[in-house]
Automatic annotation (TrEMBL):
Protein name: Vacuolar iron transporter
Protein's organism: Durio zibethinus (Durian)
UniProt record, GO biological process: intracellular manganese ion homeostasis
InterPro entries attached to this UniProt entry: Ccc1_fam
Gene: LOC111291101
GO molecular function terms noted in the UniProt entry: iron ion sequestering activity; iron ion transmembrane transporter activity; manganese ion transmembrane transporter activity
GO cellular component, one term: vacuolar membrane
Length: 226
């Protein structure tokens, strides 16, 4: 009997340690899951939207310009100069437009917040501070849009710069631009915790349509001599 008790004692001790470790792991997983669930991904929405929009717009705009010029001209210099001009003009336009748009949105939300505060009998300073932290940042959105537009616009320029054969150049620009569009759409979806495949397909279809329409209309104008 003494030998039996001696054998059973380590088994019960090991079982207790195993339960303790398991409970500790489960608690850590619950804490991590709670922290992830409590993170407000809507705070990312403003700069993610501006960055994805800027990158996609820069890529589509410059790629479409290159495709449009390439539809009527074989000169690589004309294509690159047109694309570079589109990069600079588009980045400035995106920054200014985003700044004005987001500032208007911020003013509207701030005015509404003050109105709701006055309507309450006693203002909650802590709640008002939290609401102010969630207000969109115009400067951040403008910088993100300009930088993202420039990054997106550089992609088709680099794709076209090192290829001398005209038809091959256009094909490479179209393929590289399509792959980059899908990547931008997927990256934005991952950062915002939305379905990446659907986002990539949506951006890819829109960008491909823009390039195809620009190429087709420019080619038509060049053929008809309008």
């Amino acid at each position: 009997m003494a030998a039996l008790r001696t054998c059973e004692q380590p088994s019960l001790s090991n079982l207790g340690m195993s339960i303790h470790v398991t409970n500790k792991v489960e608690k850590n997983d619950q804490i991590q899951g709670t922290a992830e669930n409590e993170f407000d991904y809507s705070r990312r929405a403003q700069w993610v939207r501006a960055a994805v929009l800027g990158a996609s717009d820069g890529l589509v705009s410059v790629a479409s310009l290159i495709m449009g010029v390439g539809a009527v001209k074989d000169d690589i210099k004309a294509m690159l100069l047109t694309g570079f001009a589109g990069l600079v003009a588009g980045a400035c336009s995106m920054a200014i437009g985003e700044f004005v748009s987001v500032y208007t949105q911020r003013d509207i939300e701030e005015t509404q917040m003050k109105r709701e505060t006055r309507m309450r009998e006693s203002g909650d300073n802590e709640e008002e501070t939290d609401q102010r932290e969630k207000l969109p940042n115009p400067g951040q959105a403008a910088i993100a849009s300009a930088l993202a537009f420039s990054v997106g616009a550089v992609v088709p320029l680099l794709a076209a710069a090192f290829i001398r054969q005209h038809k091959l150049r256009l094909a490479v620009v179209a393929v590289v631009a399509s792959l980059a569009l899908a990547a931008f759409g997927g990256a934005g979806a991952v950062l915002g915790r939305t379905p990446p495949v659907r986002s990539s397909v949506r951006v890819l279809i829109g960008g491909s349509m823009a390039m195809a329409i620009t190429f087709g209309l420019t080619k038509l104008i060049g053929i008809t001599g309008l």
